[in-house]
Specification:
Elements (H helix, E strand, L loop, with lengths): L2 E13 L2 E16 L7 H15 L6 E11 L6 E9 L2 E15 L2 E11 L11 H6 L3 E9 L5
Antiparallel strand pairs: 1-2, 2-3, 3-4, 4-5, 5-6, 6-7
Length: 151
């Protein structure tokens, strides 16, 4: 299952050596299931409602990632970004390997994917025993960030 969320706001900080910090806020209510045929409107709506419930989007309408440390990745390709990920008022530190894409005229493109254990953020913990066993604990998150120059 794949779903898409919109960023609500975000700021990246740069120093002479590149990315140095920042944060992102995600609009959890913007969830959109993206891997089902558009004609399956009932199934899409049912899954969206289920995911919204598991994520507690009414009580926790935003998620946040705050960068706490940036360093060059040990393989020399990309960046190692550590930060605090907050989902449903649970904050945990995560490490992400970020690939730095094209850079031109002050614009940057970053991509990353990383996995979390949904139970660490209390996602889907209210489901039945069967749901907890049949649904993977691991959630993979993909980020695709394009920056622009503000001047």
């Amino acid at each position: 299952m794949k779903a898409h969320f919109n960023f609500k706001k975000g700021i990246l900080h740069f120093s002479h050596s590149g990315l140095s910090g920042g944060y992102f806020v995600t609009d959890m209510k913007s969830i959109r299931v993206t891997d089902m045929p558009a004609a399956e409107t009932s199934a899409i709506q049912n899954l969206t409602n289920h995911l919204s419930s598991d994520l507690g989007t009414e009580q926790h309408p935003v998620a946040k990632f705050t960068i706490t440390q940036v360093s060059e990745h040990k393989n020399g390709y990309g960046l190692q970004v550590a930060g605090d990920l907050t989902i449903k008022d649970v904050t945990r530190n995560v490490a992400i390997i970020v690939e730095e894409g094209t850079q031109s005229e002050g614009r940057h493109h970053y991509t990353a994917s990383f996995s979390i254990d949904r139970f660490d953020w209390n996602i889907g913990t209210d489901g039945s025993w069967l749901e907890k066993k049949l649904v993977d604990r691991e959630i993979t998150l993909w980020l695709d960030v394009h920056t622009f120059s503000s001047f």
